[in-house]
Write a structure and sequence with these properties.
There is one protein chain. The chain has a four-stranded antiparallel β-sheet with strand order 2-3-1-4. The chain is about 25% helix and about 25% strand. It has a domain of about 60 residues: Alpha-Beta Plaits. A hairpin with a 4-residue loop joins β2 and β3. α1 packs across α2.
Length: about 100
């Protein structure tokens, strides 16, 4: 995945590319499942940017972001530090609202 340039609206495309329909990705892996709410995601590129940053956190085994709902489901070996997740989401150019 390549780096995306985030525009001033907080998303990679300002909401102009995609319907915001939920992804068909289904997560089925062992571990701790946590669902977070992220603001600013509008399309598949946004989902990918957030997923890529969160996937880089230690212990994360699976990530599925859905722009249409703003939810990001994370499976990890152990509970994650919410500040680390917040920093990863911020690095992607979005805002972690909290747990869904």
């Amino acid at each position: 995945m390549t780096s995306e340039t985030i525009n001033s609206s907080g998303s990679c495309c300002g909401g102009s590319c995609g319907s915001g329909a939920p992804s068909a990705l289904q997560i089925q892996a062992p571990g701790v499942t946590t669902v977070y709410k992220v603001s600013g995601m509008t399309c598949g590129h946004c989902e990918g940017a957030v997923s890529e940053e969160i996937s880089a956190l230690d212990g994360v085994t699976s990530v599925a972001a859905v722009a249409g709902t703003g939810e990001v489901t994370v499976i990890s070996a152990a509970p994650l530090d919410e500040e680390a997740v917040r920093a990863a989401v911020d690095e992607a150019g979005y805002e972690l609202v909290g747990r869904a």
